[in-house]
Specification:
With 157 residues, the chain is an alpha+beta fold. The protein is built from 4 helices and 5 strands. It has a 5-stranded mixed sheet, with helices on both faces.
Length: 157
């Protein structure tokens, strides 16, 4: 199997016809997760008011097909590919499509990978953007783990 990773960013163009940003994002994620599960694609999507940034991984035919759909989607404008290359292993092997938006935590991580005070993938290398999204995904995965059960000691009879 020929795996590849594609990293891109775009400008969101979500209009009222898309049902507003929240509805459009939910619809987009639901469709992505369904399609990606059947095609073996993994990755993550980051969104703020100014940009979509995404890493897509999988078989090169599936990644190419997915990217063709994304670039034809009217919710994306000015689509810029930062990197498309063959890979030996995935960064997002457990994520059919992760999602993150701006929070205090993601802003702190962003400042770790960029000199710019606001999220601007145009001012980032592909490697920096991929590592940022990988760290955000890892952090989300750790937060989703259930806390260990506390053992309650019961006095013997």
């Amino acid at each position: 199997m020929y795996l590849m990773r594609l990293t891109y960013y775009s400008t969101p163009s979500i209009t009222p016809e898309h049902g507003g940003r929240t509805t459009a994002l939910k619809d987009n994620l639901a469709a992505s997760r369904k399609n990606n599960a059947t095609s073996g694609i993994t990755g993550t999507l980051f969104f703020n008011d100014d940009y979509f940034a995404q890493v897509i991984e999988g078989h090169r035919d599936e990644v190419s097909n997915s990217f063709v759909r994304i670039s034809a989607d009217p919710r994306h404008e000015d689509v810029i590919i930062l990197r498309a290359e063959p890979i030996d292993e995935r960064l997002f092997n457990k994520w059919e499509m992760g999602f993150a938006s701006i929070t205090e935590q993601t802003e702190a991580l962003y400042r770790k990978y960029s000199a710019s005070p606001r999220f601007d993938p145009a001012k980032m290398s592909a490697e920096s953007l991929e590592q940022l999204l990988a760290e955000i995904a890892q952090s989300a995965q750790e937060q989703a783990k259930p806390e260990p059960q506390k053992v309650r000691r019961v006095a013997s009879l």
